[in-house]
Amino acid sequence: MLNERFLITLQGKNYVTYEGLLDLAHQKGLLSLEVDLVQFPNKENNMTAICKAIARTENESYVDIGDASPQSVNNALVPHIIRMASTRAKARALR
Length: 95
Known about the structure:
This protein is an alpha+beta fold. The chain is built from 2 helices and 5 strands, in the order ββαβββα. The chain has helices at 18-27, 81-94; strands spanning 7-10, 13-16, 32-39, 49-56, 61-68. It has a 3-stranded antiparallel β-sheet. A two-stranded antiparallel sheet has the order 1-2. Strand 1 (7-10) and strand 2 form a beta hairpin. The chain is flat.
């Protein structure tokens, strides 16, 4: 059951926060959540980090990727591009 404190409204639509996705995943038997850095940000790729996440339960695995670049994050997050790509990948796998 999703706790309402994990819901936010953006532009009139409800979204589940990352913390809410993680909470639901644990309720459904999440065993592991692994992340691999697929692309390291550098000048040649416009400082774009790409991560792959795998969420595993006893019976299933969910895989997705997430990316982040200076163009796709708030200026305050630019120094944390890899971490942002990782969080995005995990959130997508958990969804």
